[in-house]
Amino acid sequence: MKFKHWALLIILGAVWGSSFMFIKIATPEFGPIPLVGIRLFIAGTLFLPILLQPKYLKQIHGFKLKIFILSLLNATIPFTLFSYASYTSDSNMLAILNSSAALLTMIVAYFWIKEPIGRKQVSGLIIGFIGIIVLVNPSNIQISLISSLACLTAASCYAISNVFIQKFTKDIKKVVLIGWSLIFGAITLSPLTIVYFPSTTPSTEAILSLFWLGAIGTGLAFIGYVRSIETIGAVKTSTVAYFLPLFGIIWGYIFLNEKVTYIVIVGCLMVLLGIFVANTNKPDTGTNEGIIK
User: Fold this and answer.
1) In whole angstroms, what is the distance from residue 181 CA to residue 178 CA?
2) Which of 93, 104, 109 is nearest to 251 (CA)?
3) Digits of tens for pLDDT over the chain (293 positions)?
4) Phi then psi for 114, rounded to 5 degrees?
5) Using CA atoms, how far apart are residues 91 and 17, in angstroms rounded to an integer?
6) Taking a C-beta distance cutoff of 8 angstroms, is the pair 43, 222 a contact?
7) Which of 72, 135, 172, 292 has its CA 20 to 30 A from that of 154?
């Protein structure tokens, strides 16, 4: 890959890695559901100028149900779970456990679309899941058991959505798929967003965090992600999964004064090593076309 391609992936990793820090900041004042609902509305609005172009608008026909399902699996449910988890978890833990989606995708693909798993992939899965066990053990004060389960459930949603995309949405452009799924998610959450909207005005810090999450962390980042897939392919673009947890740790340490303990370091390295081993010499069967963030 050229330098500009690596630069885009690193920027995406830095932006998505920062999202967990901003979730940690904004959730206590907005509440999980209003935060996610407004976040999706802002992100979806950025996609509208693209989606309303005639060449893209006609593609939605026949895919509305699939887009709705994807909106739940790839945005509404996992975004909300990570927001709830942020109450009793450091942001760096959210970022690391989010990356487990890359491992879980292989398991879902094996059972759902019969994608083969070789010995090397099994070794990678074992290493990665040992890393997860290291992270979610009771001695890790950076995250509670409930938050760990919420994060892993959210990552499982991402894994299912990755395989869902591969199986059912080959004939639709990624920009249409992602853009409308964000809009559908915002519409789905709108009644609850109104009901649970905070009665007191959130702080400037929380409002700015929300706008970063919607406009930059979701809207522009997804546009950049689609651009990367179109330029260098889905498999190479999926390497952004390695940068995301690393930046999640860095931003949490710098801006939230989160401790980087040996448990965080060991667990993160094992998860990333597991992802690397599991994907080494792995046939390009297309599963990596899913959305990772």
Assistant:
1) 5
2) 93
3) 788 889 999 999 999 999 999 999 999 999 999 999 999 999 999 999 999 999 899 889 889 999 999 999 999 999 999 999 999 999 999 999 999 999 999 999 999 999 999 999 999 999 999 999 999 998 899 999 999 999 999 999 999 999 999 888 888 898 999 999 999 999 999 999 999 999 999 999 999 999 999 999 999 999 999 888 888 877 788 888 889 999 999 999 999 999 999 999 999 999 999 999 988 766 555 554 444 45
4) 60, 35
5) 9
6) yes
7) 172
- Helices 101-112 and 262-279 cross at an angle (nearest 10°) of 40
Integer Rg of the chain from CA: 18
Residue 224 tokens read as 């950049």
Which structure tokens are listed for 199? 């009665």
Residue that the structure tokens 């010995």 belong to: 119
Mind giving me the DSSP string for the chain? --HHHHHHHHHHHHHHHHHHHHHHHHHHHH-HHHHHHHHHHHHHHHHHHHHTSHHHHGGGTT-HHHHHHHHIIIIIHHHHHHHHHGGGB-HHHHHHHHTTHHHHHHHHHHHHS-----HHHHHHHHHHHHHHHHHHSTT-TTB-HHHHHHHHHHHHHHHHHHHHHHHH-TTS-HHHHHHHHHHHHHHHHHHHHHHT--SSPPPHHHHHHHHIIIIIIIIIHHHHHHHHHHHH-HHHHTTHHHHHHHHHHHHHHHHS-----HHHHHHHHHHHHHHHHHHTT----SGGGS---
The tokens of 101 are what?
A: 């989606």
Q: What angle do CA 51, 105, 271 make, to 5 degrees?
A: 115
Q: For residue 286, is it left (φ>0), alpha (ψ between -120 and 50) or beta?
A: left
